[in-house]
């Protein structure tokens, strides 16, 4: 193994990475971080080799890092197939259809947030929710005379609730993969922080919307979507059995992969119910569903899914893990973490540093995936050393990495939300209550110890054994 890399060289690599990411995402307006990450991995590899680290060892570090992400990659591919089957089978359209029916003029902001929660939970995408239903809600709100910034804040809060809680979301799968926890265990653990955060947000929206009670709502846009869904699909509460079964699987602790495969099978069955020819089933599972609706909002909302739809995220994970693998194998992340962890005297300060690191990465890297992956790798061992279960770290990553991404104007999420809704990021930020309350709740739990579940002695010893095995494998690779 090589010598310890000076902290100034580690910081230099991070600065170069941030500059490359800024250029690729913001300046060139590509929105892709892949090449920047690969270039950063090359630079990190060169500096590591200069400091005495053998390439063969660094390469094994890359492969090991990608290997740790394989479960998430498999789940992402299955989720792509599930989304395609649920769209073609009418499951997601049914959830959207009934969700739209809850709108009421007196509780517009409250109901709009709930609706976005439902749609985002059903689809696993905040961008899809905001770009379709969110746009419609902004138009409805403007017709009521409601401040568009208020409406946009409620939409973003609801959309990112689903983005962090839906098993169909890529970030919901990514966080536990990085932290070493299990998907459904991760989702159950997030209930501790997201429930009070959502309640606080809904109370604020109910209060803000009280002044509009009794107003008449222009339901033209909403009715257009509802009628279009009914024209394209057979809508029935029976189709809600698919998401209900997935929820029950979460409750009964069935492993993620067989649970999601079960949901996909139900989606395929409902595809048959909708009259989709069997010859098209494989195409839909692989390439996703394409809506036949001539209504733009419906076409954009429902045309997605399929295994191939997840390949962009899969490739991003591989690129990020290549960079992270070199940084990890050469102990550069360890050096950086040690510098930051000097101020972490207890569990509360550790959680605080992890949250701030995720927010920092959202600001400087402009990407929520990196805001989950890099802090996750940096603080994994620190959480383990405090005997905190992996689900604590995965929850912190989502409570800060995922949820604050739309609050940064130059972050890909913030820029997208602003473009979709026609409202500047800093304008809707004060009203995106869930997005800034959630990290505060997470920090509060860190200092109070609420729901910060500890490992048993057996679990902790297993972690130590795994670490030692990985260290021995690393040493053998150098022989």
Order of helices and strands: HHHHHHHHHHHHHHHHHHHHHHHH
Overall morphology: globular
| Average residue pLDDT | 85
- Largest pleated sheet: none
- Hey, roughly how much beta strand do the residues contain? under 5%
Low-confidence stretches: none
- Percent of residues in helices comes to over 70%
Q: Give the C-alpha Rg.
A: 23 Å
Q: SS-based structural class? A: mainly alpha
How many strand elements?
Answer: 0
Distance between the termini: 10 Å
Number of helices: 24
What are its keywords?
479 residues; mainly alpha; 0% strand
List the SSEs and their pairings.
Elements lengths: L6 H21 L6 H17 L4 H14 L1 H19 L2 H10 L7 H16 L2 H19 L3 H18 L4 H10 L3 H27 L10 H13 L8 H11 L4 H18 L7 H7 L8 H7 L8 H19 L2 H10 L5 H19 L2 H18 L4 H13 L9 H10 L3 H4 L4 H16 L8 H22 L1
Helix pairs in contact: 1-2, 2-16, 3-16, 4-9, 4-13, 4-14, 5-6, 5-11, 6-7, 6-8, 6-10, 7-8, 7-15, 7-21, 8-10, 9-19, 9-20, 10-20, 10-23, 12-13, 16-19, 17-19, 18-19, 18-20, 18-23, 19-20, 20-23
Summarize the structure in words:
- With 479 residues, the chain is an all-alpha fold.
- It has a domain at 71-310.
- It contains 24 helices and no strands.
- The chain has helices at 7-27, 34-50, 55-68, 70-88, 91-100, 108-123, 126-144, 148-165, 170-179, 183-209, 220-232, 241-251, 256-273, 281-287, 296-302, 311-329, 332-341, 347-365, 368-385, 390-402, 412-421, 425-428, 433-448, 457-478.
- α2 runs parallel beside α16, α3 crosses α16 (311-329) and α18 (347-365) packs antiparallel against α23.
- The protein starts with 6 loop residues before the first helix and ends with a helix.
- The model has no long low-confidence stretch (mean pLDDT 85).
